[in-house]
């Protein structure tokens, strides 16, 4: 009986998981199949520990306070590069908060490196 159940489970898995991908189906169980952008930037939750650590590293290089991580993307090539849109507030001037687009690189086993820090009007990524 167990042998029959195992065989039935294998057939079911093949029908529902392997077969749709093999024939180029766009969905499995009505969930879109979206392959990662290999070598490119992929969306990552703003609550991800790596994102938070990268954001904290970046703001600690400037006289600002982190208010919010608005958007986060990550690229995995020889380490992790984080592309973040941050809402920050100056520690020096009494000014409204502003948006910053920043890139932080974290080579495997090494320290963070700030690659860019640019003031922007909106959080949109081009890559």
Main attributes of the structure:
127 residues; alpha+beta; five-stranded antiparallel sheet; two-stranded antiparallel sheet; globular
What is the count of DSSP helices, taking H or I runs of 4+ residues?
Answer: 2
Secondary-structure element series: HEEEHEEEE
Helix content: 25-40%
What do the pLDDT scores average to? 80
By secondary-structure content and strand pairing, the structural class works out as alpha+beta
Oligomer: single chain
Which percent range describes the beta-strand content? 35-45%
**What's the N-to-C terminus distance?**
53 Å
- General form: globular
What's the total count of β strands?
7
Poorly predicted regions are 21-35
Report what the structure shows.
With 127 residues, this protein is an alpha+beta fold. Helices cover 25% and strands 37% of the residues. A 5-stranded antiparallel beta sheet has the order 3-4-5-6-7. A two-stranded antiparallel sheet has the order 1-2. β5 and β6 form a beta hairpin. The chain is globular and about 70 Å long. The N and C termini lie far apart (53 Å).
List the helices and strands and how they pair.
Layout: H1 2-22, E1 27-28, E2 31-32, E3 42-43, H2 49-59, E4 64-76, E5 80-90, E6 98-106, E7 113-120
Antiparallel strand pairs: 1-2, 3-4, 4-5, 5-6, 6-7
């Amino acid at each position: 009986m167990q042998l029959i159940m195992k065989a039935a489970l294998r057939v079911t898995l093949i029908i529902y998981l392997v077969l749709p991908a093999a024939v180029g189906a766009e969905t499995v169980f009505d969930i879109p199949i979206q392959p990662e952008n290999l070598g490119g930037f992929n969306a990552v939750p703003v609550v991800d520990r790596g994102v938070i650590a990268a954001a904290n590293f970046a703001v600690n290089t400037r006289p600002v306070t982190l208010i919010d991580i608005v958007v986060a993307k990550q690229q995995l090539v020889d380490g992790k590069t984080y592309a973040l849109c941050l809402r920050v507030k100056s520690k020096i001037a009494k000014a409204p908060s502003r948006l910053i687009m920043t890139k932080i690189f974290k080579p495997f086993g090494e320290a963070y490196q700030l690659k860019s820090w640019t003031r922007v009007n909106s959080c949109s990524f081009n890559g």
